[in-house]
Amino acid sequence: MSDAVLYEGGSDGIVVLTLNRPELRNPISDNEMVEAILAALDRLERDVGARVAILTGAGKAFSSGGNINAMKSGGGLNDGLPVRTRGNYKRGIQRLPLAFAALEVPVIAAVNGPAIGAGLDLATMCDLRVAGESARFAESFVKLGIIAGDGGAWLLPRVVGFSKAAEMALTGDMIGAAEALACGLVSQVVPDTDLLAAARTLAGRIAANPPHAVRMTKRLLWEGQRTELATLLEMAAAMQALAHATGDHAEAVDAFLEKRPPVFKGD
């Protein structure tokens, strides 16, 4: 796997993924970074010891989104032939939201600085978001005369609601960490020096639960955003049958009745 994304696993079931292009403020639109993120997510999904992941950025930025220096015609995703540009998006950055949606391991975005354009959308691809006080957010595509080509128009309204998403997308204006907390974009704002510790604490609360139930719960939450109630209920019934058959479910019930802490083994 490329060093564009660092993968750090631990015995506590918490994996830390770090976007590692600080000199460029961690842009995610180039092929190398897209492939590195996809490889990290694939490794994460196959890591049987992984219960939850934290995604953050090296340096002072979470992600600047696209590399503006590469946006002129013939640079980056923008090909001189429009049909090739379309293909560049489909084979490139548009694979990211699909991969995050398919992932069953919960991901917490620890936003350590600016999350701009596709960087903001990357944060919304995650399941939860915590921010340092210096974090800044902008759905800034319109300011460059383009649109969110990475799924932001689908992702952002589902996190902050249509009205706030429309305000952010149509103005392109930047908001600070306090406003991000107020509109539900993030669930916590902490001092910058405490960010990873806060993300780890939240991750630990998730990792303490039976891993099969956590993964199936994440799948149901994502499916609930795009399917009808009857379909979701059918899926929930099937998953519940699986959950009832796990050793962790039996352990949870026994521990509750015996008034002791449960010991979950992922079986």
Question: What does this protein look like?
Answer:
- This protein is an alpha/beta fold and 267 residues long.
- It is built from eleven helices and nine strands.
- The strands form two sheets. The chain has a six-stranded mixed β-sheet with strand order 1-2-3-4-6-9, sandwiched between helices.
- Helix 1 links the parallel strand 2 (14-19) and strand 3.
- Helix 1 (31-46) packs parallel to helix 3.
- The longest helix is centred in the N-terminal third of the chain and has 16 residues, at 31-46.
What is the topology?
Layout: E1 5-8, E2 14-19, H1 31-46, E3 52-57, H2 82-91, H3 95-102, E4 107-111, E5 114-116, H4 118-125, E6 128-132, E7 136-138, H5 152-160, H6 162-171, E8 174-176, H7 177-182, E9 188-190, H8 195-207, H9 211-223, H10 229-244, H11 247-258
Parallel strand pairs: 2-3, 3-4, 4-6, 5-7, 6-9
Antiparallel strand pairs: 1-2, 7-8
Amount of helix: 40-55%
Instruction: Quickly give the structural class.
Output: alpha/beta
Number of strands: 9
- The gyration radius over C-alpha positions equals 19 Å
The strand line-up of the biggest sheet is 1-2-3-4-6-9
Strand count, sense and barrel status of the largest sheet are: 6 strands, mixed
Oligomer description? single chain
Poorly predicted runs are none
Number of helices: 11
Distance between the termini: 29 Å
Which term fits the overall shape? Answer: globular
Element-level helix/strand string:
EEHEHHEEHEEHHEHEHHHH
Mean pLDDT: 94
What percent strand? Answer: 5-15%
